[in-house]
Design goal:
474 residues; three-stranded antiparallel sheet; elongated
């Protein structure tokens, strides 16, 4: 049977970095085995689930390119199916009604804790041979509980953690439908995985204790349990629980920070998994080489500096056409029109060696798509002196006389002017940068001039000379 995996987030918040890694691992397992990947929204917690969170999950998954091979599933649309299965289990005797009130259960747990016992349901409404149950109390809506086996054990052969054994005596009778008829998480997951033919469940290790209960329900339904793999948590670089200061952010916040989706996936796949010493992977390489048996059972550590490094490697090496849509997104987010300036590919090629993120690239390229709003005060004070003004005035004449406007021609013109004036290149290039960029930092000056274009360059040179002279005479 072909592999089918699923990512099943609860829409009670945005898609965070840990969830994105789980989604990626599930996606890679499916694709590595030639199977399919499913996105399932587990929204039975109707009080906490929000449409905003659902939209954020879809937005994050789409940005990362982790596309479901099926129409997305919502648990709230499957209530009739859950009720059908519960009715079958009640008829088969693998589930039963429990009329214990909240007050009775609270008192039961208090007594157990007083005896230093593990708090657990005591089976008071569980049908047993030779046991007489009381009449159901009037006005008390019952919950439905799963009749968990009381003998034997559940052996979980975890694909990451190895074999884990649970004694059935440690598992009490789980509620599978609340008093209002709404099915519970552990039950819905089981029915969904069964109906959807899920072959591999990859999820966080906070679900380990749910797994033996789910396996027992599947066996009671006559279903073959899927293979399970529980991924260890992600810690901060300092070993502490991952928090916002470490990088525990929503996936779309990484987009706003200037990460490429493929770079973020590349960083996430290396959190707990490795393939020799290889650091950078294309998506196809991830699919071909990913293996759950190589995923560490120890917690991974999130290192933001390493994430930036991976992103920079991508920016420097991928086809700039791949970067264009994200770069354009950042420019528009800054209120800039990409059509009001040079080719995005040309800008990416000129900026990518010195920019770790697309946000940084967009900020450093602002001058190419909008008029200058002023000059860096420190840079202007340093470079708009008498020598700088002389250089700018001379450069204006030199550049205006050029018939060809490209980087090689501009390089020769600026260097020729510096030699003719017996000035070091810095004495010429730095005032020129401040005049056309607004600061003394830019890509190589010939590239900067070529990108900015003749008209804007000459207009800014003229404006800078006028501004500097007005300041000098004030």
């Amino acid at each position: 049977m072909s592999a089918v995996t699923r990512f099943a987030p609860s829409p009670t918040g945005f898609l965070h970095i840990g969830g994105a890694r789980t989604a990626l691992f599930s996606y890679l397992v499916a694709k590595n085995l030639g199977g399919k990947f499913l996105l399932r929204i587990e929204d039975t917690d109707r009080e906490r689930s929000t449409q905003e969170a659902v939209d954020a999950i879809f937005e994050g998954m789409e940005w990362l390119g982790l596309k479901s091979d099926f129409d997305s599933v919502y648990q709230t649309q499957r209530f009739d199916r859950y009720k059908e299965v519960i009715a079958q289990m009640l008829a088969a005797g693998t589930a039963y009604y429990c009329y214990a009130t909240r007050e009775e259960l609270d008192a039961m747990r208090a007594e157990q804790m007083a005896r230093k016992e593990k708090p657990r349901y005591d089976g008071r409404w569980r049908p047993e041979a030779g046991k007489t149950l009381p009449e159901p109390p009037a006005g008390v809506p019952p919950v439905v509980r799963f009749r968990n086996p009381v003998e034997g054990e559940v052996v979980l052969d975890d694909l990451i953690k190895g074999p884990i054994v649970f004694a059935n005596t440690e598992l009490d009778d789980l509620i599978i439908a609340r008093a209002d008829g709404v099915p519970t998480y552990n039950f819905c997951v089981v029915v969904d995985d069964w109906d959807m033919g899920i072959t591999h469940v990859i999820r966080g290790d906070d679900h380990v204790n749910n797994t033996p209960r789910q396996i027992n329900i599947l066996k009671a339904l006559g279903a073959e349990p899927p293979a399970y793999a529980h991924v260890s948590m992600i810690l901060g670089a300092d070993g502490a629980k991952l928090s916002k200061r470490h990088g525990a952010l929503g996936v779309m916040e990484y987009r706003a920070m200037g990460f490429l989706p493929e770079a973020l996936l590349n960083y996430l796949v290396r959190l707990g998994w490795s393939h020799g010493d290889q650091e950078l992977f294309t998506r196809q390489e991830m699919i071909e080489k990913f293996d759950l048996s190589k995923v560490s059972s120890s917690a991974a550590r999130f290192d933001m500096e390493k994430a930036y490094w991976v992103n920079h490697q991508y920016l420097k090496s991928v086809d700039p056409e791949v970067v264009v849509p994200e770069f354009e997104w950042h420019l528009r987010r800054m209120g800039l029109d990409p059509a009001n300036g040079p080719s995005l590919v040309d800008v990416i090629l000129s900026q990518r060696e010195r920019c770790r993120t697309l946000l940084e690239m967009a900020e450093k390229s602002h001058f190419l798509y909008a008029d200058l709003s002023g000059y860096n005060e420190k840079d202007a004070a340093k470079h708009f002196n008498a020598d700088g003004l002389h250089a700018l005035a001379g450069l204006y004449k030199t550049l205006k006389a050029l018939e060809t406007w490209d980087a090689p021609t501009l390089h020769a013109a600026v260097n020729g002017f510096a030699e003719a004036e017996k000035l070091g290149l810095g004495k010429v290039a730095q005032p020129l940068r401040v005049a056309i960029v607004g600061m003394a930092v830019s890509p190589p000056i010939d590239q900067t001039l070529a990108l900015l274009g003749r008209e804007r360059t000459l207009a800014r040179l003229d404006a800078a000379v006028a501004w500097a002279r007005s300041r000098a005479s004030a």
